[in-house]
Design goal:
The chain is built from 12 helices and 32 strands. With about 700 residues, the protein is α/β, with parallel strands linked by helices.
Length: about 700
């Protein structure tokens, strides 16, 4: 047992007031005697009391004062302390791109923010609140606090992102806190259905759950893709723009395209309801940032702009080939003669050292595994297999460790959706005399599946005999380096023969994929999921922190700092506070080099636009685009405020509804003490009444 409000015990001093009143309100009792002679020798203070006589009325009044003081002091039992401390409110607000949609009564995110402010205003003194932002990722905007001013500031900084929505992820983050809380409530504010919140909301008591849903408009037209094509085997570049009308009416607009401010296209747009159209930009000759804008009357503007990178063409793609095979060297010489954009330098395996790669755009290793990870995109042909078809070589990386040799090999199928496998037909008719099977890492993409008779197995899970559906070729990203591993000896094919034409096409595809046209971002800063300096919003930009460089910062096209890296711990901490501020207002010392100790390696790209990566004096650009069909389809979810979720019996509240929550049950001992006060007041009145009747 304990007391919540110790200060209230000071009210016990009122007892002195009761004593004072009774002292000065003493009665004189008359006693009739026959003679005063016996009293003359007795002192007055012996027969006259200085105090009043304690009666039942006095005791009742003292008891009432004690009860009222205890009520204000709020005594409690230890089992009730969590209830007494008030509600713990966790608010999950959807900040995905669709929350930017303009409705008749305002932008969806503004409606949600207004509701959060009402929840804050309704907080009692003992209540606490936490605010979580849910977009493609989730983050805590304001931790659990009872500070209303801090919570209001957190609401003010809430902004919608240009990303998809992972509402269930945000709710899961909320539950990670709710599981450790007592007397808690969960509030979800979104434009999605309650079923997107995840199954765990069904576990909640409806009195502890609030769901607010916003939005009804479907009036949207979006740019859903922008694809740029720069082929080393073609002299001109192309781009293709796709526009989709998500609304139920025909829409008009204007589509414009420009590179570095120079207009390339301006075209009127007339698109029917639910229609999709594609527009082509051909013979692009200016390098730079390609910007496509859609000017139309719709409710969501985030998907009306897209960006691409048109790289400056390189005159030559320099390739280093490491092989001891004269046959393979001869076949690649044919490619060099046929395509003037390719320059191939061939060296034997004993001449190779990793420093040579600094002068090349890609590398080809034939039956050879380098000691260290190559610093450029690489093609590995039969790595780990010697001239006698025996498994040899170093195993610095498990994905280059072959698991078995098969003779002969039959190609079963291939991934024609991958750039290295496009334009291929009749690949299954190619004769492969021997091949190496691998166990690719889980993040690899299998390019070719084949069957064969295993003769040189090294692992018990690959028994000798016929094996079907084994990976013969795959692609993988090793940190920021692309690699293609092929278990076939490409030196066994003749690129001049029609039967081996599929192998020629596949080789050209691989060279194209490993050597993107033009300059890429520096290997120290480019992202694994970036293709041709383009990525989608919501993805993570990754950093190779083990590389040394003199400092790095990433700046958005509007001059706001997105990422700052420096290796000194205090500077890193301070750098985090610079995110979102104008670059001209910061001064980052560049006299230190980044080391492996730097913990900040990733940054989420939340908004579409152009980003500049500054590494010392060098600057590189990449673009991020918002392409998401579900987010652009802003009104594809139901908007019935009385709808019942599939996940449980919780009612969805419309955007103008107020959450109905039950009044908190008071289980403190103080309430029971308070109930005694009227009873003793009645006893006091009854006692006084009876005394008057007696007199």
């Amino acid at each position: 047992m304990g007391i919540l409000n110790l200060i209230a015990l000071s009210y016990l001093s009122v007892i002195s007031v009761v004593v004072f009143l009774h002292y000065f309100n003493r009665r004189t009792n008359l006693i009739y005697v026959s003679s005063l002679i016996p009293w003359q020798d007795i002192k007055t203070d012996v027969v006259t009391s200085r105090l009043f006589r304690i009666n039942l009325l006095f005791l009742l009044q003292i008891l009432i004062v004690i009860l009222l003081s205890l009520f204000l002091a709020r005594p409690y039992l230890s089992t009730d302390i969590l209830v007494i401390h008030g509600r713990n409110k966790v608010v999950v607000v959807d900040t995905s791109a669709s929350m930017q949609t303009l409705e008749e009564d305002g932008i969806r995110i503004d409606q949600a923010k207004e509701q959060i402010r009402k929840l804050i205003d309704d907080m009692k003194a003992e209540d606490k609140m936490m605010i979580i932002s849910a977009y493609s990722s989730s983050e805590v905007v304001v931790g659990l606090t009872s500070n209303k001013e801090l919570l209001q500031k957190g609401v003010d900084i809430l902004k919608p992102t240009d990303t998809s929505s992972d509402l269930e992820g945000g709710v899961s983050l909320a539950f990670s806190y709710l599981d450790n809380m007592k007397n808690s409530q969960l509030f979800i504010l979104t434009d999605m259905d309650i079923k997107n919140s995840g199954p765990r909301v069904a576990e909640l008591d409806p009195k502890s759950f609030g769901f607010f849903k916003y939005g009804s408009s479907r009036d949207n037209v979006a740019i859903t893709s922008l694809d740029t094509f720069q082929d080393i085997f073609h002299e001109t570049d192309e781009a293709y723009i796709t526009v989709k009308n998500y609304s139920k009416v025909r829409k008009r607009g204007t589509l414009r395209a420009s590179i570095e401010g120079k207009q390339l296209m301006k075209s009127g747009l007339l698109i029917n309801a639910d229609e999709q159209k594609t527009f082509a930009l051909r013979k692009l000759s200016i390098p730079g940032v390609l910007k496509v804008e859609l000017d139309t009357d719709d409710a969501l503007k985030a998907d009306n702009v897209a960006y691409g990178i048109i790289k400056e063409r390189k005159k030559l793609i320099n390739i280093l080939m490491v092989t001891n095979s004269a046959k393979l060297k001869g076949e690649f010489n044919k490619l060099e003669s046929a395509f003037r954009q390719i320059n191939i330098t061939t060296i034997s395996t004993d001449k190779y050292n990793i420093g040579l790669l600094n002068n090349y755009d890609m590398a080809i290793f034939h039956k050879f595994i380098p000691e260290k990870l190559p610093a450029v995109n690489s093609m590995f042909i039969s790595p780990g297999l010697d001239t006698e078809n025996q498994i040899v070589g170093q195993e610095w990386n498990s994905f280059l460790s072959p698991k078995g040799v098969a003779q002969p090999v039959k190609i079963l199928d291939w991934d024609d959706a991958h750039p290295t496998m496009k334009y291929l037909t009749y690949l299954d008719n190619v004769k492969v005399f021997n091949g190496l099977f691998y166990a690719p890492p889980k993040d690899a993409r299998i390019l070719i599946h084949a069957s064969g008779v295993i003769s040189g197995d090294r692992f018990s899970n690959m028994p000798k005999g016929v094996s079907n559906n084994m990976p013969l070729a795959f692609s993988v990203n090793i940190e920021t380096i692309r690699a293609v591993v092929i278990g076939m000896d490409m030196g066994m094919f003749d690129y001049d023969k029609s039967d081996d034409l599929p192998m020629l096409i596949m080789t050209l595809n691989i060279i194209q994929w490993l050597s993107p046209l033009g300059e890429n971002l520096d290997n120290t800063v480019k992202s694994n999921n970036m293709i041709n300096n383009q990525m989608l919003t919501g993805e993570m930009f990754s950093i190779k922190s083990e590389e040394d460089f003199a400092g790095l910062r990433m700046v958005s096209s509007d001059g706001k700092v997105v990422l700052v890296l420096d290796n000194r711990p205090l500077d890193i901490k301070n750098s985090l506070n610079l995110i979102g501020k104008p670059e001209k207002e910061i001064d980052i010392p560049l006299d230190k080099k980044l080391t492996e100790q730097t913990f900040l390696k990733y940054v989420a790209i939340k908004h579409a636009g152009v980003y500049i990566v500054k590494n010392g004096e060098r600057e590189d650009k990449f673009v991020a685009n918002f392409f998401d069909d579900s987010e652009s389809g802003i009104g594809s979810v139901t908007t019935d405020s009385n709808a019942v979720s599939e996940t449980g019996s919780f009612s969805q509240s419309s955007n103008n509804a107020t959450l109905s929550t039950s009044t908190q049950e008071i289980s403190e001992l103080a309430m029971y003490i308070l109930y005694l006060v009227p009873f003793f007041l009645f006893i006091e009145w009854l006692y006084s009444f009876l005394q008057k009747q007696t007199v």
